[in-house]
Amino acid sequence: MSNTDFVLAVEDLTVSFDGFKAIDSLNLYVDRGELRVVIGPNGAGKTTLLDLICGKTKASAGSIKFKNQEMTRLPEHMIVRAGIGRKFQTPSIYENLSVFKNLEVSYPRGRGVFGALGFKCDDAVKAKVDEVAGMIGLADRLDLEAGLLSHGQKQWLEIGMLLMQDPELLMLDEPIAGMSARERELTADLLNRICQNRSVIVIEHDMDFVARIAHKVTVMHQGKILAEGSMDKVQSDPKVIDVYLGH
Ligand code: ADP
């Protein structure tokens, strides 16, 4: 496969903070429809990598190509528009609005909550809300105030708000943090459904969950990739064992 066939191709990516290389000449290639999990000890550079891909942090060197288009120096909103969605750990939803409104205002046509609230909800938006609500398991909660949802449901709603924009690459930072066992199960199913026609990058610490969802695992350490491959392969890699056991 040539590098142009990947949905995401990160090459020689480097970012320095006061001379410290948080990401150091990193290469990462993600396939279409792939669910990639990034693991690694605290400080490995996982969050910084996602910050670079979504444009929150600007690279010192290297390139980030999405669908073969250069993203490296684009502003954050252009990267979102190109089809990259990012969810942070803490849900940022409109607690006082209904689930329906939260999804409706996330439809790209009505950017920003004030603009969108004045919008007449046309059939296309409603159909999209219904589709996404079904996908995230909240179809029977559309009229509920979002603040009344459970912690897990709020996380799914935020994923749904991203799905309203039809991203082709979705990046999630510890999506099951604080979830019950049942919610974790449902989140694994949801991620599985999402990557039927999208690519997903997840940062995760829970190894049972990683084993359950990952198509491929990338292990980071000190701003570099230490190992990459199936969960079985990286788990038995002596370099990975060393880093995790601190030998
Ligand atoms: P991880 O997500 O794997 O825990 P991070 O990406 O948060 O790691 O951090 C990687 C390293 O980069 C850490 O040493 C962190 O302190 C440093 N770092 C991250 N962001 C900044 C910043 N804005 N300024 C200075 N150092 C930073």
From TrEMBL:
Keywords: ATP-binding, Nucleotide-binding, Transport. Signal peptide: none annotated. It comes from Thauera propionica. NCBIfam families: urea_trans_UrtD (TIGR03411). GO terms for molecular function: ATP binding; ATP hydrolysis activity. It comes from the Bacteria. InterPro entries: ABC_AA/LPS_Transport (IPR051120), ABC_transporter-like_ATP-bd (IPR003439), ABC_transptr_urea_ATP-bd_UrtD (IPR017781), BCA_ABC_TP_C (IPR032823), P-loop_NTPase (IPR027417). This is Urea ABC transporter ATP-binding protein UrtD. PANTHER family: CONSERVED COMPONENT OF ABC TRANSPORTER FOR NATURAL AMINO ACIDS-RELATED, HIGH-AFFINITY BRANCHED-CHAIN AMINO ACID TRANSPORT ATP-BINDING PROTEIN. The keyword Transcription does not apply. The lineage of its organism: Bacteria, Pseudomonadati, Pseudomonadota, Betaproteobacteria, Rhodocyclales. SUPFAM superfamilies: P-loop containing nucleoside triphosphate hydrolases (SSF52540). GO terms for cellular component: plasma membrane. Coiled coil: none annotated. It holds the Pfam family ABC_tran. Residues 8-247 form the ABC transporter domain.
